[in-house]
Design goal:
This protein has 474 residues and is an alpha+beta fold. The protein has 4 domains: 1-34, no CATH class; 63-94 and 241-396, Efflux pump adaptor protein, beta barrel domain (Elongation Factor Tu (Ef-tu), domain 3); 96-236, OB fold (Dihydrolipoamide Acetyltransferase, E2P), CATH 2.40.50.100; 400-473, no CATH class. It has helices spanning 16-57, 130-165, 171-203, 254-262, 398-420, 424-431, 435-449, 458-461; strands at 69-75, 77-93, 96-99, 105-110, 117-118, 123-127, 206-208, 213-215, 225-226, 235-238, 243-250, 268-272, 279-293, 298-305, 317-334, 342-346, 352-363, 366-371, 378-382, 393-395. Helix 2 runs antiparallel to helix 3. It is elongated.
C-alpha cells in the first residue's frame, strides 16, 4: 500500500496527496467493520427475544399459559321453552265509519274535538233544523185537521145508524157516511206517516256517532253546507278497542296450529316494535283465512288484541310472534353462549372445554339444546373469541363490569360539562395551576354545586394565580 506506483497523476512534493488518500481508505474500512458488527449484534438480540415474545403472547390468545382470560358466564338451566313463529303484520280496525249527514243543510255546531274517544249515539254535529221543523209542523197540522174530520164523520155515522134503526132515513145514506169515515181514516193514516217522516228528517239534523271509537281529523267546518253525497263526510270514526293484527304463517305450521285450536287451546300472540325491543301488546289467535297464497306458501291469519291503553293504531307495522307450542322442562343455555353449535364449558379447575350441541328453538335470550351439559353448569357468554380448548379463565360479573364502565363514562361526562361551564377567568387560572392544584380547584367547584358546606370549597380559593410560581421557575 506504500507503493508509490499506486498513486496516479501528478503529486505534490514529498507524496502528501498519495498519503491522504491512503488515510481515507483506512477510515472507510474501519467504519464498514463497525457497521457489520452492530448489525450482527442487533440480529442476535432480535433472535433471542423472539421466543420470549411468543411465550408472552401465548396466554393472550387462550393458549396454555398461566394468564387467565376474563369472561362472563351463564347457567345451564331447565325451563319451559315456547315454540314461536315470527312474522310481519299490519294492524286493522274492526270497524271504520265515515260520519255523513243524512239531510242537506248548513253546519251550525260541532260538538267534538279531533282525536276524541266517542260512544255510539253521541252527538257530533248540528245541521240547521228550521226548514225541517217547519215541514214537521205542517205535517202535524194536516194530521190534526184530518183527525177532526174523521171524528165528525164518525159522529154523523153514529146518528145515521140510530135514525136507520127507527126507519127514518134510507140505508144508502148510512152506507155513504160509513164510506166517508173509512176515507178519513185512510187520510189520517197517510197524515200520520207524513208526520213520522218529517220527524225523522228533523232528527237527522242531529248528527250522532254510528259506532264507538276514536275520531279523526275534521273534514267540514262551521257554516259549510253539507249533504249526504259528500265523499269525506264530517269526520271519520275508527274502532280501536279491540283491534286486529293480520299476518301470514308458513304452511308447514298449519297442522300444529289447527291441532292446538281443535283441542281448545288459545294460541298466544305478541306484538313487538320495529326494532323488536319493546313489547307492544299480547293477544290471542283468532281466525284463519280459507286459502293459501301460492306465491308465498303462507296463510293469512288474524289475531285480536284488547288495546286497552290505545297505543295501537290501524295500518301500524308490527313484528308478530305466534306461540304454536310449549316444550316442557327442556335444557337451555344463553343464546350468546352458542357459537357454531359449540359452547365453552367452565370446569372446576378454572379451564374451559368445548362441547358440541344440537341447537333447538330460541325464546328470548335463551335457546334449547341437546348435548352433554350438566344442569347448573357455567358456559361462557362473553369473551369467546379469546378462548381455546383448555384455556384458563377468570369469571367476572358482567353487570358489575357494565356498571363500572358506565360510572367511568358518567364521571367523564360530568367533568367535561364542568369544564365547559367555566368562565374565561377560571379557565385562565386553571391553565396556570399544577396538577394537584387543578384537582383541588375542580373538587371545590363540584362541592359548591352539590351544596356542600363552605369549608368544602376552601381548597378552591387557595390556588390563586399569584400564589403559584411563575412558569419560568417550574
Amino acid at each position: 500500500m506504500s507503493n508509490p506506483q499506486s498513486c496516479k497523476g501528478p503529486v505534490a512534493p514529498h507524496g502528501y496527496a498519495c498519503k491522504g488518500r491512503m488515510r481515507l481508505g483506512w477510515v472507510a474500512a474501519v467504519a464498514a467493520v463497525a457497521l457489520l458488527a452492530a448489525g450482527g449484534a442487533w440480529w442476535w438480540q432480535q433472535r433471542g427475544a423472539a421466543p420470549a415474545q411468543g411465550q408472552a403472547a401465548g396466554p393472550r390468545f387462550g393458549g396454555g399459559g398461566a394468564q387467565a382470560q376474563p369472561v362472563s358466564v351463564g347457567r345451564v338451566e331447565r325451563r319451559d321453552m315456547r315454540v314461536m313463529v315470527s312474522a310481519i303484520g299490519t294492524l286493522q280496525s274492526r270497524a271504520t265509519a265515515v260520519v255523513r249527514t243524512k239531510v242537506s243543510g248548513e253546519l251550525k255546531a260541532l260538538h267534538f274535538n279531533e282525536g276524541d274517544e266517542v260512544k255510539a249515539g253521541q252527538l257530533l254535529a248540528q245541521i240547521d233544523p228550521r226548514s225541517y221543523q217547519a215541514a214537521f209542523d205542517q205535517a202535524q197540522g194536516t194530521l190534526m185537521r184530518d183527525q177532526a174530520l174523521l171524528r165528525n164523520a164518525r159522529l154523523d155515522l153514529q146518528r145515521y145508524q140510530e135514525l136507520k134503526s127507527q126507519d127514518s132515513i134510507a140505508s144508502q145514506q148510512v152506507d155513504t157516511q160509513a164510506a166517508l169515515v173509512r176515507q178519513y181514516e185512510g187520510t189520517v193514516a197517510a197524515d200520520q206517516a207524513q208526520v213520522d217522516a218529517a220527524r225523522l228528517q228533523l232528527s237527522y239534523t242531529r248528527v250522532t256517532a254510528p259506532i264507538a271509537g276514536r275520531l279523526g281529523l275534521r273534514q267540514a267546518d262551521l257554516g259549510n253546507v253539507v249533504n249526504p253525497a259528500d265523499a269525506n263526510g264530517i269526520v271519520t270514526i275508527t274502532q280501536l278497542r279491540p283491534i286486529d293484527a293480520v299476518f301470514s304463517v308458513p304452511q308447514a305450521q298449519l297442522d300444529r296450529i289447527r291441532e292446538r285450536q281443535a283441542g281448545g287451546a288459545e294460541l298466544p300472540v305478541e306484538l313487538w316494535d320495529r326494532e323488536q325491543r319493546q313489547l307492544l301488546a299480547r293477544g290471542r289467535l283468532g281466525a284463519l283465512d280459507n286459502a293459501i297464497d301460492l306465491t308465498t306458501d303462507t296463510l293469512k291469519v288474524k289475531a285480536a288484541f284488547a288495546n286497552a291503553d290505545g297505543r295501537l293504531f290501524p295500518n301500524q307495522f308490527v313484528n308478530v310472534r305466534l306461540q304454536v307450542d310449549l316444550l316442557k322442562d327442556t335444557l337451555t343455555v344463553p343464546a350468546a353462549a352458542v357459537q357454531n353449535n359449540y359452547v365453552y364449558l367452565v370446569q372446576d379447575d378454572g379451564t374451559v372445554t368445548q362441547r358440541r350441541l344440537r341447537v333447538g328453538v330460541a325464546d328470548g335470550d335463551r335457546v334449547s339444546v341437546e348435548g352433554d351439559l350438566p344442569e347448573g353448569a357455567q358456559v361462557v357468554t362473553d369473551g369467546l373469541d379469546r378462548l381455546r380448548e383448555g384455556a384458563r379463565v377468570m369469571v367476572i360479573d358482567a353487570q358489575a363490569a357494565a356498571k363500572a364502565d358506565q360510572a367511568v363514562q358518567d364521571a367523564g361526562q360530568r367533568r367535561a360539562q364542568m369544564l365547559r361551564n367555566l368562565t374565561p377567568e377560571q379557565r385562565e387560572k386553571l391553565s396556570k395551576m399544577t396538577a394537584d392544584e387543578r384537582r383541588a380547584f375542580l373538587r371545590g367547584l363540584r362541592a359548591q354545586r352539590e351544596g356542600a358546606a363552605p369549608t368544602a370549597s376552601a381548597p378552591a380559593s387557595a390556588p390563586a394565580p399569584a400564589a403559584s410560581p411563575p412558569p419560568a421557575a417550574r
